[in-house]
Design brief:
With about 475 residues, the protein is mainly alpha-helical. The protein contains 20 helices and five strands.
């Protein structure tokens, strides 16, 4: 009986898995394998919580495979060496994997394909970067025309069901999947395909109708919470988009329809940033816009450390940064607020912030993270104009109006009256003492004065943008 290897990378699921389906179609037996790649595990961008989430996802996938008569084989080492050994051990005739578009993944796969029978399938995105080009064959660098082309592309079929039985060869030697406990209760994600499907169903049946209004509120659970599952392929992009389209079709009113379209738009942004990294891999090291590659960043290490620890004196910034440290996740609105504060108020290089996020985010994805940071810093493709500088107080008042998010993650401010929760430095000293939060002692004074910092940033950006 012919045997194939299913090489799992960012597709920790059985349903709508085109690589698994291709392997089953090609051979009577399939051996699922995950390679613990030391080059990735030793990366300076690694995050402990993301790694723990991955390991728990592998455990969940192993259980799902066992229920279908299969075994997940996990080995550690260079992918070429590991896959070569397995091909010989089980006499496999091919390796099937979902295409990945990051610079490292492409180099790795090209090396493997030179010496082994590697077959790549779609799945990481609904439409591959190669399918989304301008009429002249050039890649898009602006989101709106990219999204219009994306929406015009033929729908690539309904998501595939999960196979009920996965025949495989006799068991082979493997290494144990590391067990790294996830923090609780701060960590809000349980790994695995079943949890991803549960969240998708819950979101698209209820919360998606309010997504347009609630998605920016830091004090509400207004987002899908699916980013870690898309990051590791516990949910496929096609499954998410199919659910968005269904929610749009079943919307009971115009507002609900627009909300579903808004979420679909966010999923298209994900594919836009994947395409940008695919065609312009230099963005991991440099600004997309050449004129802004030599901005005179201040890069004050003490101020960066205060930002990273959530000690800037601006409650909304500090709450978001502490959420990142505790939960390994941050609301998208909070990501924009904190990134703007670092790059515009403190004039710290966006690459410092990008790396810090990758070292903590459970959903840390090189394409989306880079795209988000360059957008906020004004250095990217579809970048925010350089003069868009988030006012942390106004953002706080608008998106955490009662200070619930702030009080949750900055306990020093728990008893601060609502009228001062966004600007605690304005509290009279007697009230500060009464509530046990003296600014400068119990909670830091603002690291910089925003109005002054804004003018400084505008002058520098204006000089380099002209």
């Amino acid at each position: 009986m012919r045997t194939a290897l299913w090489w799992i990378r960012r597709d920790l699921r059985l349903s709508d898995n085109q690589a698994l389906a291709a392997a089953l179609s090609h051979a009577g037996q399939v051996l699922p394998v995950f390679v613990l790649d030391p080059q990735l595990l030793s990366s300076p961008y690694i995050a402990e919580k993301r790694l723990a989430f991955l390991y728990q996802g592998l455990h969940a996938l192993g259980k799902d495979l066992y229920q279908r008569g299969s075994t997940l084989v996990v080995r550690s080492g260079d992918p070429i060496r590991v896959l070569t050994e397995l091909i010989h051990e089980v006499s496999a005739e091919g390796i099937f994997a979902e295409a990945d578009y990051s610079p490292y993944a492409r180099r790795r796969d090209q090396s493997v394909a030179r010496v082994l029978p590697l077959h790549l399938t779609p799945g990481l995105t609904v439409h591959s970067p190669e399918a989304l080009l301008k009429p002249d064959g050039a890649p898009y660098t602006v989101f709106t025309p990219f999204s219009k082309t994306w929406l015009r592309r033929p729908w690539p079929g309904i998501p595939l069901p999960d196979p009920k039985h996965i025949p495989g060869p006799e068991s082979v030697n493997e290494v144990r999947i590391p067990i790294t406990p996830l923090p609780a209760p701060e960590f809000p994600f349980q790994a695995g395909e079943s949890e991803a499907q549960r969240r998708l169903a819950a979101f698209t049946s209820q919360a998606i109708s309010r997504y347009g209004d609630d998605r920016n509120r830091l004090d509400l659970m207004g987002t899908s919470g699916l980013s870690p599952y898309l990051r590791f392929g516990m949910l496929s992009a096609r499954q998410a988009v199919a659910a968005a389209r269904q929610a749009e079709a079943q919307a009971v009113d115009a507002a609900s329809c627009r909300a579903a379209q808004t979420w679909l738009n966010e999923l298209i942004w994900r594919e836009f940033y994947i395409a940008i990294l695919y065609y312009y891999p230099f963005v991991r090291q440099a600004a997309f816009r050449p004129a802004l590659r030599d901005l005179p960043w201040v890069n004050n290490p003490e101020q960066f450390s205060a930002w990273a620890q959530g000690l800037t004196g601006y409650p909304i910034v500090d709450a978001a940064m502490r959420q990142l440290l505790q939960a390994g996740w941050m609301h998208n609105r909070a990501r924009m607020i904190t990134a703007s504060f670092l790059t515009k108020d403190l004039l710290v290089d966006w690459r410092w912030g990008e790396r810090h996020f990758m070292q903590h985010l459970v959903d840390g994805d090189p394409a989306a993270n880079n795209g988000g940071w360059q957008w906020t810093a004004g250095t990217g493709t579809d970048a925010a104009p350089y003069y868009r500088i988030f006012n942390p107080v106004l953002q706080s008042q608008k998106f955490d109006p009662h200070g619930q998010f702030i009080r949750r993650f900055v306990p020093e401010l728990a008893n601060v009256p609502g009228e001062y929760i966004h600007e605690p430095w304005k509290m009279p000293l007697d009230i500060q003492r009464l509530v046990g939060c003296v600014v400068g002692i119990d909670y830091p004074a603002p690291l910089v004065e925003h109005a002054w910092a804004r003018l400084r940033a505008l002058e520098i950006y204006r000089r380099f943008s002209s």
